[in-house]
Amino acid sequence: MARSLFALSPHQMPKPAVISDIFLAKEAVKSHEKGCIEAYFNDLQKTFTSPHCNHSINIAPFKFDTPSPDDIVSSGKNAARNFPKVPLGSTKASSNITGKKEIVNLLPVNEVSNSSSASSSKDNHIDVSESSNSRDYEDAPQIIADDLHRLKLDKNSKDNRSKKASRNVQYKPEKWMLSDQEQGISSQLNLAVVGHVDSGKSTLCGRLLHLLGRISKKQMHKNEKEAKEKGKGSFAYAWAMDESAEERQRGITMTVAVAYFDSKKFRVVLLDSPGHKDFVPNMISGATQADAAVLVVDASVGSFEAGMGGNSVGQTKEHAQLIRSFGVEQIIVAVNKMDLVEFSKERFDFIKLQLGLFLCSCKFKESSVAWIPLSAMENQNLVTTASDVRLSSWYQGFCLLDAIDSLKPPQRDVSKPLLLPICDVVISHFVGQVAVCGKLEFGALRASSKVLVMPSGDLATVQTIQRDYCPCTIAKAGDNVAVSLQGIDAGHVMPGGVLCHPDLPVTVASSLELKILVLDIVTPILVGSQVEIHIHHAKEAARVTKILSLLDQKSGKVSRNAPRILTARQSAIIEVALDGTVCVEEFSVCRALGRAFLRASGSTIAVGIVTRVLEQGS
Which residue stretches does the UniProt record annotate as biased composition, category Basic and acidic residues (predicted)? Predict the structure, then answer.
């Protein structure tokens, strides 16, 4: 239509020159200047015109400062298409038509060249307003880019809003989750057993399980025989917890061993944690499930002092700090191996004074700390009061089992959406299934439930549930369970992941803001320091990117902005960038996923909480 309106009469129509599109494309790349283009067209005219011909080919150079007729018609159509819709009956319409600017760079090269001669001969027919608007054509690429950028931002903002909206959906638990909640069934207590290496943790757990009938005489006899054969007769009870060949050969616990027993008040899950400093990451991963803790201390001279660390930090101190950072408020201090100090009251009082001061500095309340002198090897003060007169003459308090029953039952919340941090993954290649183990923090779970596996974002179906090695149909908040999943690739399930409600996925982050307490460190923390961050069962390499501020220890207010370094016992706000991604939530949203621990050079250097998610992972 544009060509019919602006076409020349037949006697005015010049003969067209045959110019290859490839040639024009190559020449156009050489320069973007209008003057150069005119020179090329003049040269072409001389080249393609025979010297014996009397007529000349009139090829007018294309003028880039004015739109072609095709541009005008196309922009008019586009403007009409993009014109804002006006309600019926309205007599006003917007005159802001900008469609013309988006057309220029979308025209093919041959259309531009074909329309150039027609437009040059009819320049006087173009309206003044059109020629004035033609100056904006040079800005067309930038305008289009800006529009695309705005669209992208709008899309991202809508996606973010939709994600936030889905996370803020009013969750209502189903009836089956709340059923039987008031019945008089024993509450589960996850009890972490922690302390310095060789303080007798595994022996204490094994002896306690044997006295409560959880280890058969046959199994105990087998352990005693094998221990004597390897010259480690005193390890017989410890081998009830340390089952792997490497643990038995080295004589130390390397992973968190799990065992169960029933007390008068609780169904207790024992979490026997490794005490060696090389396996503190395993201790963090396992003991983070704890509701309460037993801190085992070796009463013998020199061993207690080694656990306290002297000038450095021993595992007695480190474990106490970590346990408090897990949110554990109730702790039982089991002063073990009292038989090696002749059940001395003076030694017990000395340990209570020294360690008590440190526990107070870790924010343990004095009323929440129980002190129990005992001997696991001699079976003194474990499940009954002490029979040795050297102990019973000055101690008339609880035995260890009674102290466990004196703990306050933990609060369970089944009304919140499902949340199960994955501690371990077991893959069965034979049946093609994958099972995850961990503590159910919130909500409830039953067979055939749909769950979302993060960070992969895959849906899976719960096939079976085991609690305390026994099959069950329903598990609720606080239970330690093994959940068998179907409908998911085993490669998409990993320790440190999370099972959650399909409509309420947890956040996956790659950059975090933390509020930390620096522990007793020698090397200060600087911007750029490489650390290992632990959050629930996840661990990831990270780097300190910013030290935002120092905080006053008492008031918690900012005392200094942007310090250069952080030293021992300082509180601060920092930013860390993770090499990968972790499932995490702000501490104010979910405490179970909002605690963080920083380690470097084999030691825990800081503990803290997640205050803000700075960058979400893909």
Answer: 122-138, 146-162
Cβ distance 209 to 219 under 8 Å?
Answer: no
Provide the Cα torsion 107, 109, 114, 120; round to 10°. Answer: 80
Instruction: Please report, for residues 480, 515, 537, 543, 582, the alpha-carbon distance to residue 510 in angstroms, rounded to integers and kept in the order given.
Output: 28, 17, 16, 11, 7
- Longest CA pairwise span in the chain (Å): 134
Closest CA to 547 of 527, 519, 529, 567: 527
Please give the Cα distance from 63 to 57 (Å, whole number): 18
DSSP annotation string for 441-459: -BSEEETT-EEEEETTTEE
Local structure of 434: helix, strand or coil: strand
Q: Which secondary-structure segment (H or E) carries 508? A: strand 507-518
- How far is Cα 68 from Cα 108, in angstroms, rounded to an integer? 13
Look up residue 488 and give its two tokens: 């998911």
- The HSE-up count of residue 330 (CA atoms within 13 Å, CB side) is 14
Instruction: Give the residue ranges of the chain where pLDDT is below 70.
Output: 1-169, 179-186, 310-313, 429-432, 618
CB atoms within 10 A of CB 106: 10
CA distance 496 to 398: 38
